[in-house]
Amino acid sequence: MTFTPFDLEQWQSLYETTVQFNLADSGVQPVTLGELVSTPDAVNQLLRTPLHYPAVNGTVRLRELIARLYEGARPDNVLVTVGAAEANSITVAALTRPGDHVIVMEPGYRQVSGVSLNSGCDVEAFHLRRENGWRPDLDELDRLVRPTTRLIAVTNPNNPVGTILTSADMDRIVAAAERCGAWLLADEVYRGTERLTDRETESFFGRYERVVATGSMSKAYGLSGLRTGWLVAPPDVMDAAWRRHEYATISTSMLSMTLAETALTEPLRTQLLSRNRGLIRSGYQCIEKWIAASDGLLSIVPPAATALAFVHYALDLPSLEVAHALRERASVLVGAGAHFGVENHLRITHGLAPAYLDQALERILETLSSATLRSDPVSR
Question: Whole-prediction pTM value?
Answer without folding.
Answer: 0.93
